[in-house]
Amino acid sequence: MKLTAATEKDIPLIRNLAKRSWESAYTGIISQEQIDYMLEKMYSEEEILSQLQNPDYHYYLIFDEGNSSFEGFIGYENNYEVGTTKLHRIYLVPESKGKGFGKETLNFLKDRVSESGDERIILNVNKENSAKKFYESQGYRVYDEVVLDIGDNYFMDDYLMEYVFHK
């Protein structure tokens, strides 16, 4: 597995990987209408371009060297809060789950965050998403809960999780 920094030319690939992974991750948790709404809102070309232009926001593509294929991506933002990086997104296409890519990608993130000087990583995970168990297995813990109004009468019912670096 190799992680490569995404650029503007990768926006169509990120959008495609998001759609493929979201269909798998959220079907049965939220409605198809909400999936479509969130994909369009969070993964529009304009939204991704704006994030790529933010010097604190980083996108990396997850490349499977064995299959010569892109399997997912990670997006995170250093200095989201004082001393804190926010993991905004980490998604893998369904056929790549269980191959260790998620764990390797989170280790990559920990290394980058440690280099940045931030001392904590935070993320949101839907309360019905089985990824919560995965994050817990990687040292993350729930520190709060939130219901977010994301517009158009859609809501996300999430756990707030964190990983704290011990110095």
From TrEMBL:
Cell division is among the record's keywords: no
Residue intervals of the N-acetyltransferase domain: 1-161
Gene3D superfamilies recorded: 3.40.630.30
GO molecular function annotations of the record: acyltransferase activity, transferring groups other than amino-acyl groups
Protein's UniProt keywords contain Transit peptide: no
Superkingdom of origin organism: Bacteria
Coiled-coil regions, chain positions: none
Keyword list, A-Z: Transferase
Protein name per UniProt: N-acetyltransferase
Organism, as annotated: Chryseobacterium lathyri
